Amino acid sequence: MIDWRLATQEPDMATTQLELDSLRAFLAIADQGSFTAAAGSVGRTQSAVSLKIRKLEEALGKPLFLRNAHRTTLTPAGELLLGHARRLVRDSDAAIAHLRAAEAAGAIRLGIGELFVPDHLPRVLTRFRRTHPKVRLEVQVGLSADLLKEMRAGALDLVVANREGDDDTAGRVLWTEPLRWVAAQDFEWSEDGPVQLVALPAQCTYRRMAIDALAGIGRTSEVVYACTSLLGVESAIAAGAGVAILGQSSLRRNPGLRDIGQNLPLLPDCRIAIFGEAGADHDAAHALIRFIEDSLTSESSLFRA
Question: What is the rounded distance in angstroms from the CA atom of residue 2 to the CA atom of residue 16?
Fold first, then answer.
């Protein structure tokens, strides 16, 4: 049973309880488009599903579905509930799966791409260590190309890093984030001379992307500041050293930075993937992959807001 504090017409803000079984029935109807089809998918009779939805609507004080002869559709209140219901059911299922699973043990050598350092990733790995105390996790942060080379050489077990191209066999995408042209708040764009770039070392994907994109609009560029860490790049940009391509999360972390891409080439999304999954043949690696994926899925809506 999950408690949600809902604002009602009563002044005491009464507590309303939502049952997970009712939310599952609600999601089944939203996905299947009818009470009959939903009943089959959740293993209940149609009358039982109807009763659960009626109780759910009474608890919320709003109708959730519009019914007609051809299809059942969501009301505005139903649309509002949909995302919350999916998250609550998914988190419940994930919690049960994690608690019922055999305790993982072993050692994992994990590489994390320098460009993939969202604010919550250290928290995710810390939580994993706490919930899987028998797993020894060794984390190495670096450039994606270097980490993938080490993985192929057998020095790393798994790598979470940027995926280039459209080869689906190169890694399974876990996360996408918009890329932005980023500069300091007081940066003044000039139409004369080469564009001054701040970048990671030469093998960095976004360094090459910036140079090629600017060349495509007839602008030359020069790297005036290079360092080996994302935080170093962000600090240099904030100090006015130049322009860089970074993920949108850098703008959220740094109020001294701004998006200057209005008159610059459009950029693709950054796609972060898990590499080495096919060769991960022990429980510890699979537990870590599930944990990272579940955590990113749960937090993605907040991260992109």
Answer: 9
pLDDT of residue 281: 67
Residues 87 and 127 both lie in one domain? no
The pLDDT value recorded for residue 107 is: 85
- H-helix or E-strand containing 98? helix 76-100
pLDDT of residue 220: 94
Residues 18-35: tens digit of each pLDDT: 888 899 999 989 888 888
**CATH (domain of 262):** 3.40.190.10
CA distances from 123 to 147, 160, 275 (A): 22, 16, 21
In this predicted structure, the answer to whether residue 96 has a pLDDT above a threshold of 70 is yes
Instruction: Looking at the structure, tell me whether residues 260 and 182 fall in a common domain.
Output: yes
Cα dist from 39 to 59, 72, 86, whole Å: 21, 13, 18
Residue 1, in any domain of the structure: no
For residue 188, the enclosing domain spans 177-268
User: Please, which contacts does 43-51 make with residues 24 or more away whose CB atoms are closer than 8 Å?
Assistant: 49/25
